[in-house]
Amino acid sequence: MTPEQINIAIAEAQGFRERGGGPFGIYYDKEDDDRYWVSPEYIEGFKPPWTDFDGAAYYPLPDYCNDLNEMHEAWCSLTQKQHFIFRSYLQTIVLNAQESGVLPIGPCHSVCNATALQRAEAYLKTIGKWNEKD
User: Fold this and answer.
1) Which of 26, 38, 92, 110 could bond to 59 as cystine, CB 3.0-4.6 Å?
2) pTM of the full structure
């Protein structure tokens, strides 16, 4: 999956849905708790979050592939059982990266030192949304 596909898949798992002309802004309506993606022109030139006349707040789509804080928020949405599954996937992903020479750490450090992208992959595999074909 591409980073864009990963970010969208995790956002959808967190309750966001597409609205209007495409991705890469998030529309959050405080009244009905709906969250949407909107096109970038809605937030261009403004430092997020900003609000429009009806009080709706706009944010950029979280960059789950590069932001450990965003991945932590996503991880917190998992159940206790899913945490064990996540850890298993994450350890496998990191150890495979280590074997290919990408990540020079031992197996006991694999989960602690995983990148945001590795955590994003493990998260999507945990919830059954990872797509190897993309």
Assistant:
1) 26
2) 0.76
Q: Which domain holds residue 42?
A: 14-59
Q: What is the pLDDT of residue 76?
A: 95
Average pLDDT, rounded, for the chain: 77
Nearest C-alpha neighbor of 9 from the set 134, 132, 129, 133: 129
Counting the structural domains of the chain, the total is 1
Of 125 and 46, the structure prediction assigns the larger pLDDT to: 125
Token pair of 16, please?
Answer: 């966001």
Tell me whether residue 22 is in a domain. yes
Residue 115 reports pLDDT greater than 60: yes
Average pLDDT rounded to a whole number, residues 92-110? 67
32 falls within a domain = yes
Q: Of 72, 70, 68, give the one whose Cα is nearest residue 60.
A: 70
Residue 58 and residue 25 in contact, taking contact as beta carbons nearer than 8 Å: yes
Please compute Rg for the chain using Cα positions. Answer: 17
Q: Which of 54, 14, 66 is nearest to 36 (CA)?
A: 14
| Nearest alpha carbon to residue 17 among 1, 41, 40, 33 | 33
Residue 19 lies in a domain: yes
